[in-house]
């Protein structure tokens, strides 16, 4: 394809050898090229390689409009937005056109008039693929005018007559012509408003008010929906559902490794901006915690537990470490086990519980967090010799830790521990992570694991934990 943003007229465009392709033809050709080259088709999408993406690729190759169906926080919107990466990087439009008409085939009244007047000197502009995406969250106040268009009172006030098609103010769908348009949470859209999309999907055109106006649209329409929406909050009307060519189901990460990849990818930016370290073993605790919450019978499975739950947990834990560093003067913020306790209270509102669990939400989450910590301890330090650490408690000694106790102070209270380097290595702390903060994070995790394995006791007072035999 000839894509040269330096071309400015229809004549120059024709001479360049540019070929006009529909949006779906563009996506099909570019997707096939990436498949043959073994390139990443949907950057940033984690855990869908063998499940969701093959179905999505088949739908795009077939030229189907589609619905992504899945619980909240499964990455539906993120996936939809990556589809625009399959468009040509640049595409020509008639300069100044509100609906992005192609210079070879202008369709709106304005562009047809300009084409007749200017001929081969018709001015063109270029649009980047990032600008060829439109999105609307379906809300109760969404109107047909928002999606399709309505009469523009300002143009009427300027002296144009009501019968003039150029008095139309185009809605979001025609403004996304020659691009991708997404309707998020489609079942939330009132049924009478859904009707306005029937022509878009089947006849590929729009009708505005009583105008004798037919605008053929070149568009890929993708909608998202939650499964429970079909019964609880609304539904996709049957004629509209029938017009979508494909329905693709999404899902939460299927295994722990995928959950870990997702957290690291999405939350790393958050905690790096905080200038805090979040050790690998705590990322694993958060990933296991998220999976246990999803599987818990105390949680309403129909509402799901969003991936945003684990991302927010990682960011909140890192923020707790930053707060400690600011209050106590620690040189560098490193997240510790004690920072995870606040996550329960911060994220309680992100989970829908069964009615029978009302009043027990905090207890349920606290129990699941302990289980996640114990499972991570068994997987990382379960076979490690911690006798040197346990020996610290032989004579009735106690060690107090808490979210406002400096790393250096915690290390002083514990004292030298033989085999600390091995513990840190088992937790994935390599060279460059030998600061007091990392050593304290490793030892506190070991203490918490020994408590959960019933090798130590723990008293919790005013947010601090006292470990003893």
From TrEMBL:
SUPFAM superfamilies: P-loop containing nucleoside triphosphate hydrolases
Domain of life per record: Bacteria
Gene3D superfamilies assigned: P-loop containing nucleotide triphosphate hydrolases
GO molecular function: ATP binding; protein kinase activity
A single GO BP: regulation of DNA-templated transcription
Domain Sigma-54 factor interaction: 168-227
InterPro entries: P-loop_NTPase, Sigma_54_int
Protein name: Magnesium chelatase
Organism: Spongiactinospora gelatinilytica
